[in-house]
């Protein structure tokens, strides 16, 4: 909290080159790019960083193979290159993974036709990933025994990428980059609208935690509010050439269905893509694709029934999945950018997740529509170019603002970890060696953790039962990650509430101790508040689900 409080004080006393509204993937990447290139940047979010769309993704970093069918080849080419760039820039976090797709009899395309499409997809990605392969139903069953191949006519396997950890964690690391480059960022700070006064935007901001208001001054205002871009533009009186449509997607987190590290892909009964995605010792299944009028959404009984029905049809499980198997849910909207003059009668299922930068040069205002995790580095660079065009001088325009530290730094960390035999301290229940995990999550910030563990081996103990989080990670989160509410840690800096059953968390002595580390004297209050607000994270508030 100290870091957040210091930053809020600075928000009201400095004049910034740019103020970014919204700390999802678009806003976080924008702040990191601008700060890295030398601009004086502020970033605020009315909730926590990555608190909306950016924490409800499939955790996939993909080149948009589904846009091949609509022949949007330019977008596919761009996204494939972006995916490759992320894999090279974040090798510990963004990793290639195989997608095994099963085609049922009567589907609109044959497996051979789709397999040929995967070759074109591979070529459009510069042959960066493993080659695609054609599969017979027998071969599919050999590779993944849980797939029901009765009625299948074949399938194929190809490569894309996924986030080894968590989408919200990936977003926060861009916020961390921005802070390291000198940006001022604060969560739970709401913009109540802004006006242009002379050469500056003056934004009326409110600290959501205590209600006090203050002004933030900046030369350029960047609206990266995700699904709420249109609403914030209304507050500032901005007219744009684009606006958003909304598509709701949900995922269910269930016990691990297969231990193979691949994504199983199907086409649901309505023809849409449907995934079974590895998540450590859990499995993520979904998604839905439902047109919504507003960005505020919830999981419904119908959503859950749709996912359970489709998964049970496509897998031969010893026991069909039921509502009782759901550990947690993810539910958010995809903001889809369309031109304002196109109307809202378009088939939103054919709309892509491409981003659009909409700039009002006269008022020095930028809006970011659409977007997805795969394209985040392009968003950062494009907004930096726009801000420069609007008159802000970037002192280091060519600076590489993204990526893991140099290999020499990683080697230094791994050498120290080896000398102290860190991996011998890895808990038997962990999914990877402790050294790999700490580097992937914290990079060079993990080096001081080694010294803490040397001085006190208890710092390497798992603190919360059923997770992999060790004591020194909790202390790091307290000091460096702006944990303001318990959910910030459980759901976004970590993915604890996604993979640990709700009631198990409530009874966890380790979680109560983690609260004391994070919140000190306020620990009991924050613990109680979280469980009052999150009575059951897995299920809708009413009715059983029939499947």
From TrEMBL:
Tell me which InterPro entries the record gives: DAO_C, DAO_C_sf, FAD-dep_OxRdtase, FAD/NAD-bd_sf, G3P_DH_FAD-dep
Q: Which Pfam families match?
A: DAO, DAO_C
Q: Which residues form the FAD dependent oxidoreductase domain?
A: 17-340
Q: Which domain of life is it from?
A: Bacteria
**Keywords assigned:** FAD, Flavoprotein, Glycerol metabolism, Oxidoreductase
- GO BP annotations, alphabetical order: glycerol metabolic process; glycerol-3-phosphate catabolic process
Domain Alpha-glycerophosphate oxidase C-terminal spans what residues?
430-504
Q: Which cofactor does it need?
A: FAD
Molecular function (Gene Ontology), one example: glycerol-3-phosphate dehydrogenase (quinone) activity
Family classification? Belongs to the FAD-dependent glycerol-3-phosphate dehydrogenase family.
UniProt name for this protein? Glycerol-3-phosphate dehydrogenase
């Amino acid at each position: 909290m100290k870091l957040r409080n210091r930053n809020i004080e600075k928000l009201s006393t400095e004049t910034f080159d740019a103020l970014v509204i919204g700390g999802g993937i678009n806003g976080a990447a924008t702040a990191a790019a601008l700060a890295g290139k030398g601009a004086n940047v502020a970033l605020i979010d009315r909730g926590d960083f990555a608190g909306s769309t950016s924490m409800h993704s499939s955790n996939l970093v993909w080149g948009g193979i589904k846009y091949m069918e609509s022949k949007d080849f330019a977008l596919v080419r761009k996204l494939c290159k972006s995916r490759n760039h992320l894999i090279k820039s974040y090798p510990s976090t963004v990793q290639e993974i195989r997608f095994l797709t099963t085609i049922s009899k009567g589907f609109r395309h044959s497996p051979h036709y789709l397999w040929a499409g995967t070759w074109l997809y591979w070529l459009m990605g510069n042959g960066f990933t493993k080659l695609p392969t054609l599969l017979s139903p027998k071969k599919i069953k050999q590779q993944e025994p849980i797939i029901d191949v009765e009625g299948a006519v074949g399938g194929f396997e190809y490569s894309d990428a996924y986030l080894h950890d968590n989408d919200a964690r990936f977003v926060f690391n861009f916020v961390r980059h921005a802070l390291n480059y000198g940006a001022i960022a604060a969560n739970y700070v709401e913009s109540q609208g802004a006006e242009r006064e002379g050469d500056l935007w003056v934004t009326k901001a409110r600290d959501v935690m205590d209600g006090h208001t203050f002004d933030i001054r900046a030369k350029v205002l960047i609206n990266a509010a995700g699904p709420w871009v249109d609403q914030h533009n209304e507050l500032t009186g901005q007219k744009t050439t684009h606006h958003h449509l909304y598509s709701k997607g949900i995922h269910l987190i269930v016990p691990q269905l297969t231990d193979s590290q691949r994504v199983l892909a199907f086409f649901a009964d309505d023809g849409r893509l449907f995934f079974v995605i590895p998540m450590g010792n859990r499995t993520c299944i979904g998604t839905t694709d439902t047109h919504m009028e507003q960005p505020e959404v919830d999981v419904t009984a119908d959503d859950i029934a749709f996912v359970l029905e489709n998964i049970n049809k496509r897998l031969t499980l010893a026991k069909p999945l039921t509502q009782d198997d759901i550990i947690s849910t993810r539910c958010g909207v995809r903001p889809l950018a369309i031109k304002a003059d196109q109307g809202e009668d378009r088939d939103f299922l054919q709309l892509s997740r491409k981003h659009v930068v909409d700039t009002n040069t006269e008022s020095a205002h930028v809006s970011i529509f659409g977007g997805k995790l795969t394209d985040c580095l392009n968003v950062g660079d494009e907004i930096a170019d726009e801000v420069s065009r609007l008159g802000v001088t970037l002192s280091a325009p060519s600076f590489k603002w993204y990526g893991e530290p140099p290999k020499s730094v990683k080697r230094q960390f791994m050498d120290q970890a080896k000398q102290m035999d860190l991996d011998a301290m890895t808990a038997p229940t962990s999914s990877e060696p402790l050294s790999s995990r700490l580097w992937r999550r914290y990079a060079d910030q993990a080096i001081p953790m080694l010294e803490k563990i040397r001085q006190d081996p208890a710092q390497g103990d798992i603190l919360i039962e059923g997770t992999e989080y060790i004591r020194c990670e909790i202390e790091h989160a307290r000091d460096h990650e702006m944990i303001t509410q318990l959910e910030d840690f459980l759901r976004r800096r970590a993915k604890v509430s996604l993979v640990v059953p709700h009631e198990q968390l409530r009874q966890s002595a380790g979680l109560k101790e983690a609260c004391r580390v994070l919140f000190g004297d306020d620990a009991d209050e924050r613990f109680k508040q979280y469980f009052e607000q999150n009575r059951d994270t897995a299920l809708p508030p009413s009715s059983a689900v029939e499947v």
